[in-house]
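Exam prep: given the inputs below (a chain plus uridine-diphosphate-N-acetylglucosamine), describe the expected output before reading on.
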Amino acid sequence: MTPDVSAPTTLVILAAGQGTRMKSRQPKVMHRLAGRSMIRHVLDAAAALSPRLAVVVVAPGMDQVAAEVAPALTAVQEPALGTAHAVAAARAHLAGAQGGVLVLFGDTPLITAETLLRLRQALAAPERPGVVVLGFRPADPLAYGRLVLDSDGNLERIVEFGEATAEERTIGLCNAGAMAFDAELLPHLLDGIRNDNAKGEYYLTDAVALARAMGRTVAMVEGDADEVLGVNSRAELAVAEAVLQKRLRQAAMDGGATLTDPGSVQFSWDTRLGRDVVIGPNVVFGPGVVVADDVEIKAFCHLEGAQVASGAVIGPFARLRPGAEIGQDAHIGNFVEIKKASIGPGAKVNHLSYVGDAEVGAKANIGAGTITCNYDGFDKHLTRIGAGAFIGSNTALVAPVSVGDGAIIGAGSVVARDVAADALAVTRGDHVEKPGWAARFRAAKARLKAAKARE
Ligand code: UD1
Ligand code: MG
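Solution:
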């Protein structure tokens, strides 16, 4: 029988810990993984449960976190007296809650929606457990809380490392931190938890033994060790980033993209790739990139806030900045930077150019070294280049300026006035040539040098 998970879920995410080992001015949960804060990763994984309400427990002064998690609410815990005390700080929001309360940690950002669904489903099982714990078997159990099973193999209690006997410390099954509670039972558990332990803290983990003492069953769901990786230091942040990148690469390949050297490609949490996209080595995606089908992104490109239409070829060594819109079958070549500019279908910007605040028409050809001079030190101005226009190499387009459809700009021009459609504009100086001048110059210099040597 499929467990009933239609009952509402309330989400509580604990994030009041100071995270001193990060040595940061920012709250720990604001640190980013694949371009997004840890706390948002957790909130988004939990969104799969469509929580009725989400409350993030923070320490005083963590206003940044409140802004980051909105519309989720925040509750302030002060002082921080343990994980059960932290849940109790959110109590005002939990009054009258029905169904399940899911408690997660803000610094465990790799937890997946699938695991949270399993946790929620276990709570809705026919025997209606009062508490469900997420367990895992880490390679090295370190200082994690240990899950103590009874003789029937059911979860009996959780013992924190600091309280554990030598024998209990040999247990490999550990507490990942995430727990689901029967919403109506939770207030009673919070009332019953004491702080008579090694740290003098209110341990949420004591809820397990307490629920059993109240005659309720408790259950355990086992998760993957990678998913419950806690981030307490910059080194652990890097480990979490690596795990997440691996997932994102796998998802990209599963979705039909070819990654010739997957390990060297960095994705953002929200990178969207079409089918038959080919990505070369050392490509970095910042947030907000959407790539359509059949696009090739060659080695060493950096993309952020950019849209790339089907069939386009990018790079090698290209930089697409926010607002870059690359049209169908367009080519963006090496050492080209595009910012807030639309490049029309079939247009080519193949070498050493900066195109910013611009609209480039279909099939226009932008020669090597073309620069849109978009900024006058105060404001940004627009450059318009018409369809089929040809911009000669090393052209400076002083914006605001517009080049009509089909116009040709001579190489080396500085274009500060609008150019009509199908016109030729050349602004460089005339070609001056003096036959034999260089040879005469060298001969004169040689004579002077010889005279000096004789002195
Ligand atoms: C906790 C568990 C332990 C588990 C481990 C998994 C308890 C008592 N222990 O231990 O069984 O193996 O996580 O990583 O729950 N927090 C607050 N307010 C507080 C204390 C903590 O908001 O007063 C938050 C922290 O910011 C953090 C989370 O709760 O996000 C866990 O706290 P932490 O101090 O890391 O608990 P551990 O000792 O690691
Ligand atoms: Mg911890």
